[in-house]
Design a protein that fits this description.
297 residues; mainly alpha
Length: 297
């Protein structure tokens, strides 16, 4: 398969799985604390990647190791912790909207740090996609209102994901195996997570996994959303670049609405459909698939 086509296919697969993680997490929250879900899913993901590719990655350049450590800190530890804490102080609607600007922040950082170009369609697509995300947020019957601490934390979560995208784009230039790269990032993320476990009431009570739905959803998050998806996402960034890859994040709310409708029985309203249509249109425009000006004769 053409590498570019393979990268787009990998991005779509990633978003389809990531969009369903909210439903799985919602099920697991019945028995697990957020930090327990986070730590166990990435620990499971790291073990799965070790089985898939046992060969160790030897990084002799300390500066490269620092990049790996920063990627683990930003993309695994800080992003998910900031997002979870933000949800404790602000509404899910606010957090969803604010985290949704991560592609825009990624684009700005990629332009500044990596020199990647931005076409006008990216900004038009951003406005279109954000309008769709707001429609879906309002559809959740939650009023969008300011919650200073939670909203700032959500913005910081979006910024840390943008930094993660830039760091993995840099790592992609090293030419390492994608599975080894992803596993190393996971290991750094887990290492940075360890100090938070005693403070968050983490328990090694795996008896909770005796319930089939708990085990199934944790396996989905660990093997699918973590091991598989972070590997495919890192591969996509290496091929397409940080900007083109990041705009696929716009589609996460669309998948979330569909899975919530199919699996949780939530009602699909006209406002939600409008939001989904706007997000998909924004994604297409941001990827440069729709011309915004007539070609010269």
């Amino acid at each position: 398969m053409n590498p570019t086509l393979a990268a787009h296919a990998a991005a779509i697969l990633t978003i389809l799985i990531w969009g369903a993680t909210f439903t799985s997490t919602k099920v697991l929250l019945q028995a697990f604390a957020p930090i327990e879900i986070l730590f166990l899913r990435f620990l499971l993901g790291a073990c799965a990647l070790l089985l898939a590719c046992p060969r160790l990655l030897h990084v002799r350049d300390r500066r490269r190791e620092v990049i790996f450590a920063l990627a683990g800190l930003c993309g695994v530890t800080l992003y998910f912790l900031l997002e979870n804490i933000a949800l404790s102080y602000s509404t899910a609607s606010n957090v969803g909207v604010l985290v949704g600007i991560s592609p825009f922040l990624t684009a700005l950082l990629a332009r500044i740090v990596l020199g990647e170009s931005l076409h006008p369609g990216f900004f038009v697509g951003f406005v279109c996609a954000m309008s769709g995300i707001i429609c879906i947020a309002v559809n959740s019957n939650a009023v969008l209102r300011l919650n200073p601490l939670g909203d700032v934390l959500a913005l910081l979560a979006a910024l840390t994901w943008a930094f993660y995208s830039i760091l993995t784009r840099k790592i992609g230039d090293y030419g390492y195996n994608t599975l080894q790269v992803t596993r190393r990032i996971f290991c750094w993320g887990l290492l940075f997570m360890l100090p938070t476990l005693p403070l968050s009431g983490f328990r090694w009570d795996l008896a909770r996994l005796a319930r089939p739905e708990m085990l199934a959803n944790l396996l989905f998050l660990g093997l699918g959303a973590s091991a598989l998806c972070f590997a495919t996402w890192n591969f996509t960034i290496r091929i397409l670049g940080a900007i083109k890859t990041s705009v696929y994040i716009y589609a996460v709310p669309v998948v979330s609405v569909i899975t919530a409708t199919l699996l949780l029985g939530e009602r699909l309203t006209g406002l939600a459909l409008t939001g989904m249509a706007l997000i998909i249109l924004g994604l297409v425009i941001s990827e440069g698939r729709l011309p915004l000006r007539r070609p010269k004769a």
